TrEMBL record:
Cell location: Cytoplasm
Self-association and partners: Part of the signal recognition particle protein translocation system, which is composed of SRP and FtsY.
Domain SRP54-type proteins GTP-binding: from-to ranges: 96-292
Protein name, entry field: Signal recognition particle protein
């Protein structure tokens, strides 16, 4: 989706002034991009219509930076479709707050129940109790028990020989007794929506009167995710949605449709199998991500925690002046090294998220040490001016750093390429970003 959208805008970017036809052309591309990303047909239709109307307005056509304006319109409309702001969990005025997880088999209910418990425990020092109410597969109970053990969160279970409604009833009594502040009910799923399942879930709902019925949906299932969400919502009137498996190649098609079709907010997103990989859903961040601006906010937040901002500004300055040299390169690499898993960080950088060159890259911290060794074997002059590096100097550097010449050559080539790319980016190939992030 991201790539297609970027293509749609690159046509506009190349032009200074644009006319109605250019906009219609770009909107056709946007439409195709969304449909290909499995966004629901009606949602796409409305979306494109709204954006087109706004983009054809005078301000855009007469603006000096029309492409940016159009992208901003698309961005803002994406945010609107996804619900504007993050929606917090509903809380009960008295304990316990009861949360019921529903969804198809394999959607991620059990894992997400654990993730939620973990989050509540960490953020609110809460004392949640999880109830194992999926009695159709013995493994399902064990799975929740295991998750509970990992998190040190109690799990109420009665095996698989009881009616789930009865299990929930006794589980709630247990929570009362222990004064748990949250109860998270893990329920059964099916491969598709059927009457028996819905009936069971409706009975659990009637008994437990949950404050939240969170529908867990697998984002990778595209269109199906939206249908499923619609189905569950019609039967159970869910209070929110959790989109799982957004860590894969999925680029948010489901995120766009679900809110529009069900009217229910996406509250969290699952971004990995680990129990701490649950994040609050921010529509604006998702819009950034869909537009391929990387997860800018997350990156900025991360950077604020770990990164020296003065340093970063100096760096940006240098990039713009094209005086970025090997010394800066090493500085930057060292900073990156301190920030965490490199491949994850790289993906958050605008323009990198969808960079095919990065797709299969696993960055190894050792590689950075090798790069550093190579740079340290250069003379100060060489570090400042990569053009000095003729073959004989390269051989000397290779010998000095204990790496081979090919590696030195490759590193220099990469350095030059990335410097070129950074300079391009800073000169407005990716313009449009600043304006959009500013507000
Ligand atoms: P349930 O049948 O709905 O209870 O689904 P499970 O919780 O058992 O999850 C099914 C599979 O999806 C498991 O292998 C989970 O590890 C995996 N899974 C759940 N959430 C995520 C996620 O956000 N990202 C990834 N990559 N895997 C997930
Ligand atoms: Mg399960």
């Amino acid at each position: 989706l991201t790539e297609r959208l970027q293509n749609a805008f690159s046509g506009l970017r190349r032009k200074g002034k644009i006319n109605e036809n250019d906009i219609r052309e770009a909107m056709r591309e946007v439409r195709l991009a969304l449909l290909e990303a499995d966004v629901n047909f009606d949602v796409v239709k409305d979306f494109v219509k709204t954006v087109r109307t706004q983009a054809l307005g005078k301000e855009v056509l007469e603006s000096l930076t029309p492409a940016q304006q159009v992208i901003k319109i698309v961005h803002d409309e994406l945010v609107k479709v996804m619900g504007e702001a993050a929606v917090p969990l509903n809380k009960s005025p008295h304990i316990p707050t009861i949360i019921m997880m529903v969804g198809l088999q394999g959607a991620g209910k059990t894992t997400t129940a654990g993730k939620l418990a973990n989050r509540l425990k960490k953020q609110e020092h809460a004392r949640p109790l999880m109830i194992a109410a999926d009695v159709y597969r013995p493994a399902a109970v064990d799975q929740l028990v295991t998750v509970g053990q990992q998190l040190d969160v109690p799990v109420f279970e009665m095996g698989t020989d009881h009616d789930p409604v009865d299990i929930v009833k006794q589980g709630l009594a247990e929570a009362d007794k222990n004064k748990n502040d949250y109860v998270i009910i893990d329920t059964a799923g099916r491969l598709e929506i059927d009457e028996q399942l819905m009936d069971e879930l409706a009975r659990i709902k009637a008994l437990a009167q949950p404050n939240e019925i969170l529908l867990v949906v697998d984002a990778m299932t595209g269109q199906v995710a939206t249908q499923v969400a619609d189905g569950f919502n019609q039967q159970l009137d869910v209070t929110g949605v959790i989109l799982t498996k957004l860590d894969g190649d999925t680029r948010g098609g489901a995120a766009l449709s679900i809110r529009a079709v069900t009217g229910k907010p996406i509250k969290f997103i699952g971004q990995g199998e680990k129990l701490d990989q649950l994040d609050v859903f921010y529509p604006d961040r998702m819009a950034d991500r869909i537009l391929g601006m990387g997860d800018m906010m997350s990156l900025i937040e991360k950077a604020q925690q770990d990164y020296d901002t003065d340093q970063a500004e100096k760096m940006a300055q240098k990039i713009q002046e094209n005086s970025f040299d090997f010394n800066d390169f090493v500085d930057q690499m060292s900073q990156l090294q301190n920030m965490g898993p490199l491949d994850e960080i790289m993906k958050m950088i605008p323009g990198m998220a969808n960079n095919p060159a990065l797709k299969n890259v696993k960055m190894d911290p050792k590689d950075i040490d090798h790069l550093k060794a190579i740079v340290y074997s250069m003379t100060p002059k060489e570090r400042e001016n990569p053009d000095l590096l003729n073959p004989s100097r390269r051989r000397r550097i290779a010998a000095g750093s204990g790496r081979n010449v090919q590696e030195v050559n490759r590193m220099i080539k990469q350095f030059k390429q990335s410097r070129e790319m950074m300079t391009k980016m800073s000169k407005g190939n990716f313009s449009g970003m600043e304006g959009m992030l500013g507000d």
